[in-house]
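1st attempt posting a full record on here, be nice pls
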Amino acid sequence: MVEKDSRPADFLDVDGALTDEERDIRDTVRRFAVTELAPKVTDWYEKATLPARDLAKSFGRLGILGMHLTGYGCAGSSAVAYGIACRELEAVDSGLRSFVSVQGSLAMYAIHRFGSEEQKRRWLPTLASGEEIGCFGLTEPDAGSDPSSMRTHARRDGEDWVLDGTKMWITNGTVADVAVVWAQTDEGVRGFVVPTDTPGFSANEITRKLSLRASLTAELVLDGVRLPSDAVLPGVTGLRGPLSCLNEARFGIVFGAVGAARTCYETALEYTTTRRQFGQPLAAYQLTQRKLADLVVEVNRAGLVALQLGRLKDSGALHHTQVSFGKLANVRAALDVARTARSMLGANGISLEYPVMRHAANLETVLTYEGTEEMHALSVGQAVTGIPAFRVGS
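the predicted structure (as tokens):
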């Protein structure tokens, strides 16, 4: 019998290109994910719950909340290191990576990049430590891929701002201490730092989800929420603000999808080398080996894409259309891997005793949120043709 490679998932030794610091972060996050998260995540998923407060503090102790930001209690790690942390979390469940991504790349990033010094000092240290939780309000019931059509509005009333509107599909919304909310104003789209105990602010849990169940999702309602003048993010006006935040979060997804795909592949490999049919392991049959070869190619190709985008980001050369390329390619690859791996487990593939169906269901959400597959395809299409096709007749 031919001896199996000692690194069946990292066939091309992609991690061999990591620095010592990046490898240390990988090992630390992987160890925590395997020992503390993986044994519990199936129950969280089945019960559609998450111990958000405890997790936030644990993630804070690990130093991964806003880890790619500098100062104010943030670690100042490389983009690749942040991506690797996302990969190891999503190898357990997309909901866990989403928690960290929303906290660090949406709520914290918005304040870090566009906030006042006072806003940064008030919120970033406690968000980095996990003592407080943040969320990010952009998507609305009738404004998903087209945020310019948002109806949430902020108007001036004397020295104050008054916000009215509704936000939808907001991760961490029901447990957040602070929400970064984007609204139309007479000056254009502006961002507001909204403490969630402000009168008129409420968050309603979205239930009956069939995907991303180990994640808390909310509808935010702003009914005459009155904020002082210094609640507005002073550093940006227009959609450039929220879209740049989304680009940060999408970068984490590029790496995270690799983790989900890796787990599905490793599960299929383990299952087919130990499950016997007709007197042989399933992996002894040609059709199964072809599927395993396809899976390892997709996992490693996605890993290379993620690493290349990470190096570009660290060098300051990453373009947002390249992030679209990464999300489009890697999430689609991960979903294909999950679906194929599910079929390789036969009837066991639909059981929560194995992680594959859970990952497949989660990846259906990941394919949609923070830019649908279609929107990222159009972004890449415009980049290579120079012709925008987001609107009919454009």
